[in-house]
Amino acid sequence: MQFTDEYLVLYNRKNRDECMLIYWDEILLWQYQKHNNEDQLWLQLTDGQTETIECFNRNKIVPYFKIYAKGKNGS
Question: Is this prediction's pTM over 0.85?
Fold first, then answer.
């Protein structure tokens, strides 16, 4: 994952040449979900699409979402 003040980039874990660019204003809801084996970031986008991304560092990810997708936390 990579963050800017305009968008975030989600890289394909199997092929890092493939990625998805999501503008912050395209995020309708987000939720950081803690699980026993791995954490996940769940996104609902304005076009109805949902994305679930495996995450391993809550302390790196959540602050960006609290700034750039403020008020959209669905937890």
Answer: no
Distances (CA, A) of 28 to 47, 48, 58, 68: 9, 9, 20, 12
Tokens of 46: 């304005």
**Confidence category of residue 25, pLDDT binned at 50, 70, 90:** very high
Return all residues near 18 (Cβ < 8 A) that are at least 6 apart. 11, 12
| Distance from C-alpha of 36 to C-alpha of 73, rounded to nearest angstrom | 21
Neighbour tally for 32: CB within 10 Å: 16
